[in-house]
Automatic annotation (TrEMBL):
<feature type="transmembrane region" description="Helical">
    <location>
        <begin position="144"/>
        <end position="169"/>
    </location>
</feature>
<keyword id="KW-0812">Transmembrane</keyword>
<feature type="transmembrane region" description="Helical">
    <location>
        <begin position="285"/>
        <end position="306"/>
    </location>
</feature>
<feature type="transmembrane region" description="Helical">
    <location>
        <begin position="64"/>
        <end position="84"/>
    </location>
</feature>
<feature type="transmembrane region" description="Helical">
    <location>
        <begin position="202"/>
        <end position="221"/>
    </location>
</feature>
<protein>
    <submittedName>
        <fullName>Uncharacterized protein</fullName>
    </submittedName>
</protein>
<keyword id="KW-1133">Transmembrane helix</keyword>
<feature type="transmembrane region" description="Helical">
    <location>
        <begin position="241"/>
        <end position="264"/>
    </location>
</feature>
<feature type="transmembrane region" description="Helical">
    <location>
        <begin position="21"/>
        <end position="44"/>
    </location>
</feature>
<feature type="transmembrane region" description="Helical">
    <location>
        <begin position="312"/>
        <end position="343"/>
    </location>
</feature>
<feature type="transmembrane region" description="Helical">
    <location>
        <begin position="96"/>
        <end position="124"/>
    </location>
</feature>
<keyword id="KW-0472">Membrane</keyword>
Length: 357
């Protein structure tokens, strides 16, 4: 006979996650406070010339940025610390304010701060790493891997940590299992494996179509076809060599599209035969879900940066087949996140903590 353990507010792991988030946010909050006092070290907004055009932080005066982030980060660190306590806020009026603060700061850190450059680096990283021994591409790596980029990745990590901690605490204080979210009344109809398989398939198709269309336009440019751009712009891309960097990015976008389809294919659940040593074994759920979730957040951040940037619209002039895939980046981010969640719902099985499922 299987004994189910009801979810309690004394779960240690969610508390440790909240403490980790509190420590990470507190560290960066102190650094923001130091930047406020010294007037140095703030690399965002107008202080990041290479990326200031694709971030909403350009709207915040440089002098206001450090104290604003110091307040947000330290407040969020305090909230995360409160969430690490076993019985915090369950019977008080602090639950809604803490959840609101936590989710708001998590969104700012994971989506607003990273802007498009985090996604760009994720796409170009294989090219940069593989080409470095051969001196290609001809870039200054110190300019690429800058303090500003490090801060943006740190913000992304902090946002994801805080989001996970807030989600666990939200579940715990609602009487549900902090790990799986299930409560005593069972799964909601739309979260059953059968339902997730239906809507998850459509989400995966959308999430694969957008990067595939993006890749096709860049492959066309590499082939000398000015698809969606002027002949003059194509010639400029060819002269600068940017067209080959775009082709490399397109190749990895196409790989990403294929892997996205794996979220709804059999080979996405069991390794295919040609993978020696892994053939036939079950694909770990987190191996598929975690990268997809990170890319979904990065794509959403990039879409917010691009589509809110006057420079983007000034450069492209108008909507065309060359820019249309980027316009659909928000749909890509949401659909990829939904497809990853559907994959998780289909394969999660019984919860190892509460026994439900």
């Amino acid at each position: 006979m299987t004994t189910r353990t009801e979810p309690t507010l004394t779960a240690a792991r969610p508390g440790r996650l909240a403490l980790l988030a509190a420590g990470w946010l507190g560290l960066w909050g102190v650094l923001a406070l130091i930047a406020t006092i010294t007037g140095a070290g703030y690399p965002l907004g107008a202080n990041n010339p290479g990326g200031s055009g694709t971030t909403l932080l350009r709207l915040i005066p440089v002098g206001l940025g450090p104290p604003l982030f110091a307040v947000l980060l330290l407040a969020a660190a305090g909230a995360a610390f409160v969430m690490s306590r076993p019985t915090a806020g369950t019977a008080s009026g602090w639950r809604v304010p803490l959840l609101s603060l936590g989710w708001a700061v998590a969104f700012v850190l994971a989506v607003v701060v990273p802007d498009a450059w985090v996604l760009v680096l994720l796409g170009y990283a294989p090219i940069l790493l593989l080409g470095a021994p051969f001196g290609w591409p001809d870039v200054n790596y110190a300019d690429v891997f800058s303090w500003a980029l490090f801060v943006k990745f740190a913000a992304l990590v902090g946002g994801l940590l805080l989001g996970a901690a807030v989600l666990a605490w939200q579940r715990r204080t609602a009487g549900a299992c902090a790990r799986c979210g299930r409560a005593g009344d069972g799964d909601a109809a739309w979260t059953t494996p059968a339902a997730a398989a239906r809507w998850g398939r459509w989400a995966a198709y959308v999430a694969a179509a957008v990067p595939a269309c993006y890749a096709l336009t860049r492959f066309a440019w590499a082939a000398g076809v000015p698809f969606g751009i002027s002949a003059e712009m194509l010639a400029e891309l060819q002269d600068t060599g940017a067209i080959w960097a775009g082709a490399g990015l397109a190749a990895f976008a196409m790989v990403g599209a294929i892997l996205t389809l794996g979220l709804v294919q059999r080979w996405g659940e069991r390794f295919p035969r040609w993978m020696v040593g892994l053939a036939g074994r079950r694909v770990p759920v987190r191996l598929a879900v975690v990268p997809a979730a990170v890319v979904a957040v990065a794509v959403t951040a990039a879409s917010l940066g691009y589509l809110s940037s006057p420079n983007f619209w000034a450069l492209t002039g108008a909507l065309s087949m060359g820019t249309a895939p980027i316009v659909f980046f928000p749909a890509w981010g949401v659909a990829l996140g939904a497809a990853a969640y559907a994959y998780h719902l289909r394969r999660r099985g019984a919860c190892g903590r509460c026994g439900r499922g």
